[in-house]
Write a structure and sequence with these properties.
Elements: H1 2-17, H2 27-51, H3 55-60, H4 64-72, E1 80-81, H5 84-94, H6 103-125, H7 137-160, H8 169-178, H9 185-204, H10 210-225, H11 252-283, H12 290-306, E2 313-314, H13 316-324, H14 331-346, H15 348-351, H16 356-369, H17 373-382, H18 384-399, H19 402-422, E3 426-431, E4 437-442, E5 453-458, H20 467-479, E6 487-491, H21 500-515, E7 519-523, H22 527-535, H23 538-542, H24 551-561, E8 570-571
Parallel strand pairs: 4-8, 5-6, 6-7
Antiparallel strand pairs: 1-2, 3-4, 3-5
């Protein structure tokens, strides 16, 4: 009865977490959506400069794509919108096929979004969302820190009123500081007031929409003082109106030419979106279904392509803005989309007066919050090796790029794991002189479990890279044993799999030991390992009577071979 009740409560909690947005509205999410819109609407307008698209298409990326992801995705926090990484990828490639900003260029960009949708759907069918499992908490912390530093650097030139031409963040930082003497005191002052107001609001009144207040106040100030005529850059002209729906007019050959461009974008979308949704899911202890998110991202890009805009992606910066504003469900993103609709219909004129330095200051403040120094310090204290992995991830994101940083982090994580499997701990089980139990001690030459017997434990699966080390370590113990070895018992509890190469090496080792009149006995053999041993003919070479499911029976068989009664010991 109690078990059933606990199961029911657990099921209710899980269903509550995955429940769609229905019923009574969550006002904190609605307020967060308003604040998110005030900050991100101008930001997506800025991304159109990277994409070489009309400004209004930036607004289209946060209209239907947001609704589409909310309907099909699983993440409660991920904001899907325009992204600088994917915009840079397709603009540099498509700019060689058509004049940037032309009708043909826009059609090619929209076709790329539709191709991305198709590839994301294929990724969903083949369940490639598992790639997110290779993004550890360490990697995610480093990834978000790197993105935060990258965005901070990218915002500095607008905050100081200087011009830069570089795209690499490090070169941007160099150019920004070199041009500081040519900066604007008024622009820098507005930026400082913006950052100071937001940080004070975060500390003193974190639930108030400080970003919304700053945007409205700066627009009113800009219109009252006509700041654009006092060397304070503003957003400028923004067209309005609803998008025109339809398939882009491109040829079959052009679609084939766009396929590698779309594939590059999809790699970035999968990696960056998975990293972002997993990071914020971990922060709130929520389960994220990456495969379902792939479906949501596919639907979002379908909406983008059909509405005449460009590829959308899960944005770490905008997701951080949503969370910081108090968003806890996709209702905030739906509110964001509704505000975008109102802006497209009625409010594009006021946006033209928004100072760029105010927008940069808002984004800068959010980016600073993405650098989780507390988590980095904790990682350094508990695992220095993983700390440097996080730092390396952050450095590559800043110095090379987001996608390169993510893929390098995955590669380094896998390499670190493989290195542990290549050089696992090896142990010799010896009888304790005081406690009367078998103690596992690090293996070194000159050890034995008892005269003539070595009980050996190799703490990893056997595969092609470590099978030679396994054989060499075991033979070294035999060669340097204080007494002639007559029997070896392998505690196989850590071994769950043997591949083809390791099986061949193991059969050679068995033959070599037999030539030296040394018996090899396997103990604690799982059903999975036994199946591998049968398939690779190890059972035939070893003999079925030398394979045991428990260690104590293997030890008894070993002592029978040694013609001595087994000592009275307890297994640890």
């Amino acid at each position: 009865m109690k078990t059933d009740l606990r199961h029911a409560l657990k099921t209710d909690a899980m269903s509550e977490q995955q429940k769609p947005i229905t019923g009574r509205p969550n006002w904190s999410d609605i307020v967060a959506g308003l604040s998110l819109a005030s900050v991100n609407i101008p930001q997506v307008l800025g991304y159109t400069r990277i994409a070489a698209m009309p400004a209004v298409t930036g607004l289209y990326t946060v209209l239907l794509p947001l609704i589409a992801f909310g309907a099909f995705g699983s993440s409660r926090h991920l904001v899907v919108a325009a992204d600088s990484a994917t915009a840079a990828i397709f603009s540099s490639a498509i700019g060689k096929m058509a004049l940037p900003g032309s009708a043909h260029y826009i059609a090619l960009v929209s076709a790329t979004a539709l191709l991305c949708a198709v590839l994301l759907l294929v990724a969903r069918v083949f369940r490639l969302g598992f790639l997110a499992d290779f993004l550890s908490r360490t990697v995610l912390t480093g990834f978000l820190a790197g993105v935060g530093v990258q965005v901070c650097i990218a915002m500095l030139h607008d905050m100081l009123g200087v011009s830069v031409s570089a795209h690499n963040p490090l070169v941007q930082a160099y150019e920004t500081f070199r041009h500081i003497p040519q900066g604007s005191l008024m622009v820098a002052g507005l930026s400082a007031v913006t950052v100071g107001t937001l940080m004070a609001g975060q500390r003193l009144a974190p639930h108030l929409p400080a970003g919304l207040c700053v945007v409205i106040g700066s627009i009113m100030l800009s219109m009252a003082l006509n700041l654009s005529h006092h060397d304070v850059p503003t957003l400028g002209h923004v067209a309005g109106g609803l998008p025109h729906f339809g398939l882009p007019d491109v040829s079959w050959n052009e679609l084939l030419a766009l396929l590698p461009v779309a594939a590059s974008c999809v790699f970035v979308i999968i990696a960056q979106s998975a990293a972002t949704s997993r990071a914020f899911g971990e922060r709130f202890h929520e389960t994220v279904d990456e495969d379902r998110d792939l479906l949501g991202l596919s639907a979002a890009n379908v909406a983008a392509g059909l509405s005449g805009t460009f590829t959308v992606n899960g944005s770490p910066t905008q997701t951080a803005m949503a969370v910081r504003s108090g968003a806890r469900t996709q209702l905030a993103q739906a509110t964001f989309a509704c505000v975008t609709l109102l802006v497209l219909l009625f409010l594009t004129r006021p946006l033209e007066a928004l100072p760029r330095c105010v927008l940069a200051g808002i984004v800068f403040t959010v980016a600073v919050g993405m650098i989780d120094l507390k988590s980095l310090r904790a990682i350094r204290q508990e695992s220095p090796g993983e700390f440097w992995l996080a730092v390396t991830t952050a450095a590559v994101v800043v110095g090379v790029g987001v996608e390169e940083g993510i893929f390098l982090a995955i590669a380094l994580s896998l390499f670190r794991h493989v290195r542990h499997s290549y050089e696992p701990h090896t142990l010799v089980l010896q009888q304790s002189p005081t406690a009367g139990v078998l103690e596992a001690l690090p293996a070194k030459n000159g050890q034995e479990s008892s005269p003539g017997l070595i009980v050996f434990r190799f703490c990893a699966d056997l595969f092609y890279a470590n099978s030679t080390r396994f054989r060499q370590d075991l033979l070294a113990l035999v060669d340097h044993a204080p007494h002639p070895v007559r029997c070896i018992v392998l505690d196989a509890s850590p071994v769950t799999d043997i591949d083809y190469s390791a099986a061949a090496d193991l059969r050679d080792l068995i033959a070599q030991l037999h030539q030296r009149d040394i018996a090899l006995i396997f103990g604690r053999v799982s059903v999975f390992l036994r199946a591998d041993m049968d398939r690779h003919h190890i059972t035939l070479a070893l003999g079925a009577t030398n394979i045991y499911a428990e260690l104590h029976t293997a030890l008894k068989a070993a002592h029978d071979i040694l013609d001595g009664p087994p000592p009275s010991v307890r297994l640890s």
